[in-house]
Amino acid sequence: LFSYYVFPRIGYSHPSKKHYSAGEYLKEYKDGYTLSISSGLRRDPWSFGFDFSHRKNDLKRRSYFIGNRSGKHWGVESGSNSSSAILLQGSYAIRLYSRLSLVLHGGLGGAHNKYTATLVNGGKSVPIHPKADWSLAGTGGGNLRWSFNEHVAVHAGLHYYYEEEVPSYNADLGLEFEF
Question: pTM of the prediction?
Answer without folding.
Answer: 0.89
